[in-house]
Amino acid sequence: MLGDGLDALDAESRSRGREEQDADLARSDTLTGLPNRLAVDEYLPEAIARARRSGSLLAVGVIDLDDFKAVNDRRGHEAGDQLLRCVAHGLRAHLADSDFIARLGGDEFVVVFEQLETTRAMAQLDVSLERLHRAVEPPFRLTAGEVVSIDMTMGLALYPRDGIEPTALLRQADAVMYQAKRIKRQRAQWWQVGGEATPEQITEAPFDAFGAEARELMCGLEPHLQAVAEQFSASFYGELQTRPESAAILAYLS
């Protein structure tokens, strides 16, 4: 009788353990091991409630890796995935215990900074963000022996100034991040806080079609343009060969 009761308790304990493990997996990003979007949706309302009770500020940041698509396209998805894991590990290692980080998807991450004092929130953020940027300052060495350098852009929204609901804060941080990416060649820092500038206030430097930025862009695009040109030529001349008159002209020209 006692043995049956102990067996039942043991089975119930194992079942609870499996349920907790499944719940943890559901809130974890399979690629990086960071919390995922579901975890953000659960964490952020609780963080806002803590800030409301304590009278402190809270910052929500959305991070996007600069030119990650170029790495993915030129070196392959395996290299891109490895780079994401390295960046995720570095970001988590450079955050305080009271901060939260998750992967939203793709090359986007969200960071929540809690316990910001109303009188010195920006000074606290300056210190935290300078430390966080160290995660991407050294080049990343991938398993294939390749060395990759990458930077990132962050948009920040402050509670309660920029919103009091999780979705509003995330939306504002995301909008500010894209605004900052538009001026990444001219900006003074890798992050921007909501309210610092509006799209109408931003004046982008004129683009020099023959300048260093243009040459850098063309170098990155050259392999893709070459592949497209070769594919087009093969398709175009292949089609001409199926037409007797066109084939005769091509034969004469060659």
UniProtKB/TrEMBL annotation:
- Compositional bias ranges of the Basic and acidic residues kind: 11-27
- SUPFAM superfamilies hit by this protein: Nucleotide cyclase
Under SMART domains, the record lists: GGDEF
One Pfam family it belongs to: GGDEF
Query: Any idea where the GGDEF domain is?
Result: 56-193
- Give me the ranges of the annotated region Disordered: 1-28
Q: Which NCBIfam families match?
A: GGDEF (TIGR00254)
PANTHER family given in the database record: DIGUANYLATE CYCLASE DGCT-RELATED (PTHR46663), GGDEF DOMAIN-CONTAINING PROTEIN (PTHR46663:SF2)
What is this protein called in UniProt? Answer: Diguanylate cyclase, predicted domain protein
